[in-house]
Amino acid sequence: MGEAEDGVKPKRVVFVTVGTTCFDALVKVVDSQEVRDELFKRGYTHLLIQMGRGSYLPSKSTGDDGSLAVDYFTFSSSIADHLRSASLVISHAGSGSIFETLRLGKPLIVVVNEDLMDNHQSELAEELAERKHLYCSRPQTLHQTIAIMDLKSLLPYSPGDATPVAKLIHRFLGFPED
Question: 20, 68, 141, 168: most buried, per Cβ within 10 A?
């Protein structure tokens, strides 16, 4: 990716979030040299991992050696600022994280946690990927997803109009019509 006039790469942050869950498989794979190298090759400079309740601790790096700078934390009262400053978001398949990222117009790779039983989250991620709003991956395929992703091909997400559903609920509950 292009360098600034002073020869320094512009800061491009990849923010990884697992929400409040434990998703060590995701944290481990983004900490792998293979994924780090691919992100760096794609022009990203910083990797910030929100690791939730997980026990796996990623390797921190300042990036002073010309590699990806890496840092992590467990929880934050709000991840909104991290999402806003990200150039790419890699997230678990929680609907809150997905829709908050899409509303901000950020490119998103959703990594499905295959260890969850009755994984309805994968259905949401796969449907949104089919509609070209995001990329959907598994921990073992994340490296390939990053390698082949074309962020320009993603379509902006625009939420649907919930007014008809709200009116139906109000009518059902006996509220007066507006």
Answer: 68
